[in-house]
Amino acid sequence: MLCLRLTLLLVLVVSLGAAFPHGGAPRKGCSLFKYKQVIFHEMKAVEKMQKEFRSIRRLDRSCNTRLLDRQWTSAHLSVPDRVLLVQAELNFTIAMLQRPARPSFARTRQRPLAFLAQAREDLQGCVAPSHQPSGELRQWLQNLQLAMQTLTQNTSCLEDYAIRHLFEVLGDLSCAARQEKCP
């Protein structure tokens, strides 16, 4: 069942490769203004969730998620590529946060999960079928797919990676909301 979910998620991530109009800017229905600065309360909720997660489980040193590390930042991508990156990151992170968990962690993750789900929904207005991702982004999307395929026996590694990199995802979301330069 989990393998099927991950496979469906991978198909979704890969299919995001064609997501913007020819002009390169998000469609008119795309409003990401509220994500230019991630709300303080949301950052605190994510921090609390990460702390709870670390108290439940220690990092498995056998996990090799370096495949997902990037040598570039979202600030170097075009606006359409930034949104594609954030969509893939949100889909991946949400899938990992929806995994069964201890009751205390399940409660702690509710607010960040709701925020991320809302952001993913807001990004849907930005998707159109003509943009092809840059080489850097395409390679990272392929690495994400490969990591999810190779780590299906140990999804706890993927879950750990997703939770540890949540602030990076929030930063990428904020960067995607700025339709010009990012810091």
From TrEMBL:
Q: What is this protein called?
A: IFNL3 protein
A cellular component term, taken from the record's GO annotations: extracellular space
Molecular function (Gene Ontology), one example = cytokine activity
In terms of one coarse class, where is the protein primarily found? secreted
* Keywords, sorted A to Z: Antiviral defense, Cytokine, Secreted, Signal
Give the InterPro entries listed for this entry.
Answer: IFN-lambda_sf (IPR038326), INF_lambda (IPR029177)
Record-linked Gene3D superfamilies: Interferon lambda (1.20.1250.60)
Which GO BP terms sit in this record?
cell surface receptor signaling pathway via JAK-STAT; defense response to virus; innate immune response; positive regulation of immune response
Q: Name one Pfam family in it.
A: IL28A
Q: Which family does it belong to?
A: Belongs to the lambda interferon family.
